[in-house]
Design a protein that fits this description.
- The complex is a heterodimer of chains A (about 260) and B (about 270).
- Chain A has about 260 residues and is mainly alpha-helical.
- Chain A contains 10 helices and 2 strands.
- In chain A, strands 1-2 form a two-stranded antiparallel ribbon.
- Chain A is globular.
- With about 270 residues, chain B is α/β, with parallel strands linked by helices.
- In chain B, helix 3 crosses helix 4 (about 115-125) and helix 8 packs across helix 9 (about 255-260).
- The longest helix of chain B has 16 residues, at about 175-190.
- Chain B folds into 2 domains: about 5-85 and about 160-260, Rossmann fold (3-Layer(aba) Sandwich); about 95-160, no CATH class.
- Chain B has a 6-stranded mixed beta sheet with strand order 6-7-8-3-9-10, sandwiched between helices. In chain B, strands 2-1-4-5 form a 4-stranded antiparallel beta sheet.
- The chains are: A mainly alpha (about 260), B alpha/beta (about 270).
- The interface of A and B includes residues 99 and 108 of A.
Chain lengths: ~260, ~270
């Protein structure tokens, strides 16, 4: 069993890497705020307050909520997906391939493994910031449960970590930055459109429903709606979520290490 | 006196799909003593960068071991790298920070206290003529300035072992001389330096000992003078530099290299 000081010793280098990203974010804070918060807020205004007033209510798993509540929770998960994936995929490709700072940092007493943890944790932090902004708005507007929203923050961190790991994995597999567009268009956008952000999964054909239920965004959405809208807890969603989280973290770190270390 | 850097029977091979592994370096052994500048001299593709990637802990060796101040770089990377400064061949400057911030950030990776880092960073920037640029972004620096900054960053923690992979490539003669002086000063302070270069003048001028590396193996290892005496002799060489124009000169490492490998130092393929 590790003592607190040993744990601090283990996490210090990862914290150093995380702080490097945070300092860059803080230096360009206007850019950071715009890229983190504006996009999900625009979606909210358009779909939540625009389309939401026309649709009225929706029903999923026997629970009826207003469309605005439904997409509010959807956008929380979507911000984990977009912020986590894009920061890790494009950002880490630039840092690994063009700036070569993974290698530079790993030439110091910080190891490559710690550099990659720092990268993933920062990407997850960025996704969490964005998701937290939506959770806060949702709580203030009365659309989401304030207590549930509070509990959803660590879940959002894990969700953003999952999608950041997907992004890092794709960056490690891509030979050029353009190649990241393939998973973006073939995986991220379809997940965003068909995993239940905008409409209940029950409206999809049976086969698509089954496919969607195995995707990580569906699982994350189910857990977020459970916490923030009192939807029923689904154990299979938790199992799918944990499976993808562990799998993605392992694949991203392993593939990136193999790419850098020959 | 114990060696600061010890390389024992280092072999590194790369796996290739459907082909036997490519052996980039085979059975290298050498040591660098405190206060010594040790040169790795060889053309592109000789295995210098592979050796350096293994020395700095980035690539695991296929066989052999590397000790920095007695710590195995792959078994105890944190302890070993605490004594190591690295300037790699490629530009690895962090373009998100300005010149001084870059230095400070890397100092924190070595757990130095802030006062110590700021003092050391200012000294190094002053020595290398970069102080006026301390608040500039990296993208505003010339190629030579970027190279000097990368060397300065490698020195931020005042390492006992400094590894420089072709540090003067792209530097103008003035900048090159400043860097040479810095390395000479560090030698006096007991820093062990491993210098990879394909500039024979640089190797001859700076290095106490030189390993001639070719096709992944050390062909010979000695002081520059002894290498020349052993392989070429001390006779003045006369060569025809243009039709009918003859030039007399002292033998040099290029001649040694040519004799040992049949190739000039500038020849070879990128590995």
């Amino acid at each position: 069993m590790k003592t607190l000081s040993q744990l601090k010793e283990d996490f210090w280098p990862i914290g150093c890497v995380w702080l490097r990203y945070f300092d860059v974010y803080r230096k360009n804070w206007i850019y950071g705020l715009v890229t983190t918060f504006v996009e999900p807020l625009l979606y909210l205004l358009s779909f939540g307050y625009g389309l939401g007033t026309m649709i009225g209510s929706v029903e999923e798993n026997g629970i009826s909520v207003t469309y605005r509540q439904f997409v509010f929770a959807g956008f929380v998960a979507q911000s984990c997906l977009f912020q986590g994936f894009f920061e890790a995929a494009y950002g880490s490709f630039v840092r690994m391939y063009y700036q070569k700072i993974f290698k530079a940092m790993a030439s110091t007493p910080i190891t490559l493994s710690e550099v990659l943890w720092g990268e993933l944790l920062w990407d997850a932090t960025k996704g969490t910031l964005s998701a937290t902004a939506i959770l806060t708005l949702g709580s203030i507007s009365g659309d989401l449960s304030p207590i549930g929203s509070l509990f959803a923050i660590p879940l959002c961190f894990l969700g953003a970590l999952l999608f950041a790991s997907l992004g890092l994995w794709m960056a490690a597999l891509s030979q050029t930055i353009e190649q990241i567009s393939y998973p973006q268009y073939l995986l991220v956008f379809p997940m965003f459109l068909f995993c239940g952000v905008y409409f209940p999964l029950e409206t999809l054909p049976q086969n698509l429903q089954l496919l969607a239920s195995f995707l990580p965004l569906t699982a994350l959405l189910s857990l977020i709606r459970c916490l923030t809208l009192d939807f029923p807890f689904q154990i299979q969603a938790l199992a799918v979520f944990i499976f993808w989280l562990v799998f993605m973290i392992f694949m991203s770190r392993d593939t990136m290490s193999r790419r850098l270390v020959k | 006196m114990a060696a600061s850097l010890e390389v024992k029977n280092l072999t590194k091979s790369y796996q290739r799909k459907g082909q036997p592994p490519f052996v980039a370096v085979r059975d290298l052994s050498f040591e660098v003593m405190p206060g010594e500048i040790f040169g790795l001299l060889g053309p592109n593709g000789a295995g210098k960068s592979t050796t350096i990637n293994c020395l700095t802990g980035f690539y695991p060796p296929t066989a052999g071991e590397i000790l920095i101040e007695g710590f195995d770089i792959h078994q105890s990377p944190k302890k070993a790298k605490q004594h190591l400064g690295v300037c790699s061949q490629e530009d690895t400057l962090d373009t998100d920070f300005d010149v001084l911030d870059q230095m400070l950030r890397y100092g924190t990776f070595y757990r130095l206290d802030r006062f110590q880092i700021v003092k050391r960073a200012r000294e190094l920037l002053e020595t290398l003529g970069l102080m006026e640029k301390s608040n500039e972004l990296i993208e505003n620096l010339s190629g030579g300035m970027r190279r000097k900054l990368q060397v300065a960053r490698a020195l931020i923690a005042n390492p006992k072992v400094l590894v420089l992979d072709e540090p003067t490539t792209g530097l103008d003669p003035d900048a090159r001389r400043i860097l040479w002086q810095l390395l000479t000063d560090n030698r006096k302070l007991g820093m062990a330096t491993l210098l990879s270069t394909h500039y024979m003048e640089e190797a001859e001028r700076l290095c106490d000992r030189i390993a001639i590396l070719f096709q992944g193996a050390i062909l010979d290892l000695d002081t520059p003078q002894k290498l020349i005496e052993k392989h070429i002799g001390i006779e003045i060489i006369e060569e025809e530099i243009r039709p009918g124009v003859f030039w007399k000169r002292n033998p040099n490492l290029e001649d040694v290299f040519l004799k040992l490998t049949g190739k000039s130092l500038s020849a070879g393929e990128e590995s």
